[in-house]
Design brief:
3-stranded mixed beta sheet, 233 residues, mainly alpha, 4% strand, binds zinc ion, 3 strands, rod-shaped
Amino acid sequence: MSQPFKLFRLQQLDSQLDQGRGRLREIEATLNDNAAVNQAQQRSSAADEELATARKTLHRTEENVQAQQVKIEQTEAALYGGRVRNPKELQDLQNESAALKRFLDTLEERQLEALIAVEEAELLYKAAAETLSKVTAEDKLLRQQLIAEQRSLQQDIKRLEVERQAATNSISPDDLSLYEKLRQLRRGVAVAKVNVNVCSACGSALSAALLQASRSPNHLARCDSCGRILYAG
Ligand SMILES: [Zn+2]
């Protein structure tokens, strides 16, 4: 096995490890993110509270209507009971009864409005509860899928780490340290495959001498432009 090939093989393993670890971080971030369910929960409890308030208002308007009806009955009982005979007092009672009936109309309108508000709040609560149940089910499914993917990735990474350890054993410490340095400088890619006569990482054309050098099994040739180790393939 040539030196460039050993480093190329190490690069392939590291790229797979980088990809796997990157995906693991994404999965962890998604698993830690409960925003969608939290938001749906908040909306559902807000709708629930609004419904409770609307029902209380309706109850109060019903009580007001009933109390007004009692007042009207009492006034009419006095008016027609025969105990009041004074015409002025009778007139007052008649006026009061008429005023009470007018206000009853207003109270009944308020009751109707409150009833409509309850019906609307019920619809909103139902929609919010349905959304919550849908979002929760979707979230549960997504989590199951992500946890399965996470387990599989963790196994892949363990296997790749063992392979990586074996791959580094046959690489000299100097080559390995150059490789690690280039990985840091060149966004994780230290070894570039030669594609016809071009560095596949940066796209630069390679001179005939460099192409020749990249085929040497014991010597590491590096791209003039990006400095990466070249692997002729
Ligand atoms: Zn290059």
